[in-house]
């Protein structure tokens, strides 16, 4: 992040009330604080939590930290207030002998006293050493002794604390936390503030983590997973009792997933430990601010509470355009290869460009294509989440130094480090959501008063429609972030286990605590009891297996971990991100000799990153694939290491990754349907797309907003049914599964189906047109919402999809540990364990808490049942059938999806082009 964004302010002759040191610092730069920055300072003085909604470049990071900097400067009202730590059953206590607090050096051992320092001095400022992570320094013995002396003072019956952790900053990305810490050093150093800032992520050395618990900094920047680990220790009250503020950055990105559930449960625990704690949420894109603000405050029983909302205005609106390509626009596909020469020209004409794609495999492919045409030798780099962290940091540092002309990236930079020198964002493919697009656009011109510039490059004709309505949504500042979710039960199980890893708990007390977290405010007591029972025994069907008993009750009724191994397993497996088994990719010399002989593979080699095991399983030695921006040859697989050598192959495979594809948002889908229904608006579309829609209207029909168009036609010995729900790939795939079951019962003899974001095509042996004409197939009955009843249940019993969903829930809940000590279970071991448990639970305990969690996930995730149900209700009585002699222009993209998943690279585009020509000729007949 550029310091320009962090301390963005407007030149002004007046300065709002701030300590003189701060006023002078702002004035020296010709700045004055913005209104929303001062508003958050006022909220803090009023002891109120707040959510700041501000566009990128508005200085929202400084706004979040400004109250903390003022308070810790020694000129604020809260510095040095003692915090008394209550004992159970009344009284007060020092850290228990043998506890983690005593082992880590929190204070004097029981029975000893230390002299109180009536005027404790703040920790010494150490220049860029404010973050020992950045400088690599260790605390001197004198500094450590000073920290220990002033942190706790034993008075025999109580512990008086005079310093400690003041502010906790939580980010969805490790890189963002590190970058914010680095940039905070600037004002701290220049104003000579007595503040120590440190980061704590998964990359932090163990020794440094231990030191942070003994001598906590004033400001700690971390992630949700690290917060969960800190809370799951018996010394958590000593670390967090002094906490006065938590700053949640990119809050909208945190709360829309299970990571948000884990974070909300962590906040509930912090509110119990530090009742005076206040929260500041920072977000640039929010559809419903009042709902998001609920996350920042404890929820009262039976009611709803929200933090104050502060809105920042006055930002320059972004300039967003869609590329009107000179080339022929593809009917299908996602590579956008037709426009790459134009994309390259855009990179040449601008100083620094970010090129966003939606998947890691697409990033690898696009980078290779751009590199081949890079005759000018432009410095173009690649950045995605599977690359080695060192490689990603090199790219980020080169960007910050202005050494790169372009970076091909994925969502790894959606919320990442920001650079003020980025003057253009290019988004390849459809954005899938206006809020996501707005977030990406904000990476360019990271200045409040200058417009960000972006160019959208649709990869096919349907994506032109989506890009068009997304640009309109941006112009209207219309957001489509998902609503606040209900807390997941598998995450709750993980948190319950984490609580037991810390101090033992009583069920009644923990239940009341959990309900203060917004996602769990409506948690039923029966569900909570089921979760506790699950953590304690595994559930009724598994209680005979001792390894599933992870917590037990003592004589006082408190739940505690069953044995130390449970605590160790929790620490190794905390978190909600479940990825496919990853293998390390190392670059070595080729072992192929000139005569075709092979030799022993050299061990070691430069680490390129990680790749999913399922992709490597499909390769044989000698196969080539693209990784880390290079074409490599597969040499060997040894344990968890994939050895590759450099190669030169234009037909190299592109790794596929599970997930990564964003669903089309409900909001944009509605706008696309409205655009199709308004033929006057077609004039603003590129000529190729305008002509395409006009041909569709001539040969068939263009669907209305509330209507479902169903086309049937014969082709190549089969009969096709194509419909256009515009509800996204996930909902369409579920619909396809259920439709084929119903068509099978109707004896239409379906053979298969294919779905994209906009349409669904089913084909089979039976003459669907004749069946509809003769009344043997009723479309209203075929698309009736009751398919989500018995048909769905029958399909789920046979489907492997539910097993996959259950597998994720079992891992998150801690029932199945993927990591234990120095070992990690293989993908096959995890599959065997979870599939076996799934079958047992379905047979003997169908209402098991994990089965309920898996069904809830499927409804909003892989199956998208809620969205499908809304669509089926919307179209009842509004289904229009068109009996055609051949494929329609609108159906061409859907049919081109058939069989294309296994084709890679340029060969895929050539085959698609040939198939498209044939289908288009049919459609125009």
Number of strands: 30
Radius of gyration: 29 Å
Question: What spatial order of strands do you see in the largest sheet?
Answer: 6-7-5-8-9-1-10
In the predicted model, the low-confidence regions spanning at least 5 consecutive residues are 1-5, 7-16, 78-151, 153-161, 593-599, 900-908
Mean pLDDT: 81
Tell the overall outline.
Answer: globular
Q: What is the share of helical residues?
A: 40-55%
Q: β content, as a range?
A: 5-15%
What structural class should be given to the helix and strand makeup? alpha/beta
The major beta sheet can be summarized as:
7 strands, parallel
Secondary structure tally, helices: 36
**CA-CA gap between termini:** 56 Å
Write the layout of secondary structure elements.
Blueprint lengths: L2 H4 L13 H9 L6 H11 L4 E4 L6 H16 L7 E2 L15 H4 L28 H4 L5 H11 E3 L4 E3 L5 E4 L3 H17 L6 E4 L5 H9 L4 E4 L1 H8 L4 H5 L4 E4 L2 H5 L2 H16 L4 E6 L5 H5 L14 E4 L7 E4 L17 H10 L3 E4 L3 H13 L7 E4 L5 H12 L5 E4 L14 E5 L5 H8 L11 E5 L3 H15 L13 H13 L5 H8 L10 H13 L13 E3 L5 E3 L2 H10 L8 E6 L18 E7 H4 L7 E4 L2 E9 L2 E6 L19 H12 L9 H13 L8 E8 L2 E6 L5 H17 L4 E6 L4 E5 L3 H6 L5 H4 L7 H9 L2 H13 L5 E2 L2 E2 L2 H18 L4 H12 L4 H11 L3 E5 L8 H5 L8 H20 L1
Parallel strand pairs: 1-9, 1-10, 5-7, 5-8, 6-7, 8-9, 11-16, 12-14, 12-15, 13-14, 15-16, 19-23, 24-30
Antiparallel strand pairs: 2-4, 3-4, 17-18, 19-20, 21-22, 22-23, 24-25, 25-27, 26-27, 28-29
